[in-house]
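ASSEMBLY PREDICTION REQUEST
Request ID: AP-0331
Submitted by: J.K., bench scientist
Number of chains: two
Total residues: 374
Priority: normal
Notes: Please return the full assembly, not individual chains.
Input sequences:
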Amino acid sequence: MPRKVDHRERRTQIADALMRVAAEHGLEAVSLRHVAAEAGVSAGMVQHYFRTKDEMMTFALDVVRVRSEVRVGAAVQALGPDPAPRRLVRALMTTLLPLDEESRADGRVALAFLSYTAVRPATAPALREGTTQMVGFIAGLLPGGDEVGAAGLLALMEGLGMYLLGGQYTEEQALRVLDAQLDLLFR
Amino acid sequence: MPRKVDHRERRTQIADALMRVAAEHGLEAVSLRHVAAEAGVSAGMVQHYFRTKDEMMTFALDVVRVRSEVRVGAAVQALGPDPAPRRLVRALMTTLLPLDEESRADGRVALAFLSYTAVRPATAPALREGTTQMVGFIAGLLPGGDEVGAAGLLALMEGLGMYLLGGQYTEEQALRVLDAQLDLLFR
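STATUS: Completed
Returned structure:
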């Protein structure tokens, strides 16, 4: 097997271990030792692939981002050709909300990363770029290309995600809020 | 000084130190040793006042909550008697958004707590109760007592707060989104 592929695979394996640790015990439990034990490798091996915790976190955040892009892509495919804009926007939002166990685990990791990046803005450029792209894409689907409405919908979805993870809102309540917002934006 | 007052004061002093550590270095830097050093007391002293990290975190979250209630109270007072519902709702939301350095520091702590509570739902009952009360209060100010609209507005504010802390949205953009949402709800 070529060396480059092996390197990326090993990094992904370690990042997956990091995410399992973060999802189960919280970000403050993410240590070199803990991640190494979870990945079934030595601490020295983790250090070989990631020089710093920041580097490991940034890579893991990228894995979460790619995984959510794949989920979004699959959800869009499932709608068939030329879906109505409102259906497409709703599918995007529900795919990104933590409504099943897998996306709930990813959501907990994303939340942990957000609180991590809030004190280290330098680690979050990919996050910012992703948000800008998503706002542009949603705006293109809203009546009148509504950029402010798109930015609001994305913020609403992010807040709903937090309240779902924290248990403040039930799934039913979150979906009712989302649909009411779509009523306002597509009125 | 009576013993009880001293106890609460000391706990608040330690919780303040915890919040400074969390705001500056992130939640994963919050350790007994680090908090003790920041508070200028011994690690044994911290352990005397808080048996576990969970206990310390729960108390600190309560301090943040009370502080934000005080800020909200002051903002409402400043509006004078019988403010228009829309002005009152806007003042509530802007007070809760991380728009100045103090509320940004509190926001980073709140975000850290949210990611902490997302893996330990048992530590967050006060958080949930506060959200329910706030939704009820806002609903009473919206046309038709709109509960779903109130729940959506609060989620939108929470998402805007995250994007402000993460640097995805600028202050100007966040306020434009908030005002557009108030336009929709008070239309």
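REVIEWER COMMENTS: Chain B has a mean pLDDT of 86.
SIGN-OFF: pending second reviewer
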